[in-house]
Amino acid sequence: MLPTPDGGGSSTGEKKGMDTAKVKDINSQLTKEKTNLQAAKTEADAAAKKLQSNWKGPDADRFQNQWAKKSAKIDACINDLNAMTKQLDADITEQDTGSA
């Protein structure tokens, strides 16, 4: 086993740790894409609302019901991604503090 920065060993020979500069860049990209997803979802919600006022009947009702469910799932993904990027920020800070 090779030693790792935390004093442990790795049976695969890989070191543990974080390149905080690179991880910060990746986290910034994830945050940007979360914002893009949020904007796209807002636009899709607006389109579905326009559709609702221009299409009536059982097929339209089915579509709106499906969209409501999918829209909620997209919101959940956005919330999860937000939580993940916040946790990654905390992990970066912890790594920087521990390495100082």
UniProtKB/TrEMBL annotation:
Region Disordered, annotated ranges: 1-33
Biased amino acid composition, Basic and acidic residues: 13-33
InterPro entries in the cross-refs: ESAT-6-like_sf, T7SS_ESAT-6-like
Family matches, as Pfam families: WXG100
Residue ranges, compositional bias (Gly residues): 1-11
Recorded coiled-coil stretches: none
Domain of life: Bacteria
Protein's name according to its UniProt entry: WXG100 family type VII secretion target
Classification of source organism: Bacteria, Bacillati, Actinomycetota, Actinomycetes, Micrococcales
